[in-house]
Amino acid sequence: MCNGCVHKEYPDRGNTCLESGSYLMNYLGCANCHQRDFVLISNKATEDDDGEEIVTYDHVCKNCDHVIARHEYTFSVVDEYQEYTMLCMLCGKAEDSISVLPDDPRQSAPLF
User: Fold this and answer.
1) Closest CA to 66 of 54, 56, 74, 58
2) In sequence order, which residues have a C-beta less than 8 Å from that of residue 3 and are 6 or more positions away?
3) Which residue would you say has higher pLDDT here, 37 or 57?
4) Does the CA dihedral 31-32-36-37 come out positive or negative?
5) Domains of the chain, earliest start first
6) In angstroms, rounded to a whole number, what is the distance separating the alpha carbons of residues 36 and 19?
7) How far is residue 35's CA from residue 54's CA, in Å, rounded to a whole number?
């Protein structure tokens, strides 16, 4: 992973969790070949560990195959919520939780 390729290491992305793709707004350019071109995804792997799906891949410079960052995305169902997390030097860090019920109990107003 290369901190010379990004504007900010692990920017806070709130609840935006990316299963694939790249956050190019944070990409300075390749510190190895000094080009600012497309970022490719390589070494993508998906594993299922006790009901938790983990997706990992590398962000790689299109021109010189320099590894810019390693991306990790997780998905799981805990109680009645879908839980998402993302951790990547390029794309940032984020967490999200969404109810599997039609109406999210956390969003409902109290009756009295």
Assistant:
1) 58
2) 9, 89
3) 57
4) negative
5) 3-99 (2.60.40.4240)
6) 23
7) 31
> Which tokens is 97 given?
């939780």
CA distance 42 to 56: 9
The Cα-based distances of 111 to 4, 21, 75, 108 in angstroms read 53, 42, 33, 9
- 62-77, pLDDT tens digit by residue? 999 999 999 999 999 8
Residue 46 binned pLDDT confidence (cut-offs 50, 70, 90): very high
Which region among 20-29, 46-55, 56-65, 103-112 has the lowest average model confidence (pLDDT)?
103-112
Q: What is the mean pLDDT of the chain?
A: 89
Do the beta carbons of residue 81 and residue 97 sit within 8 Å?
yes
- 23/27 Cα distance (integer angstroms): 7
Which one-letter amino acid corresponds to residue 102? P
Contact 22, 91 (CB under 8 A): yes
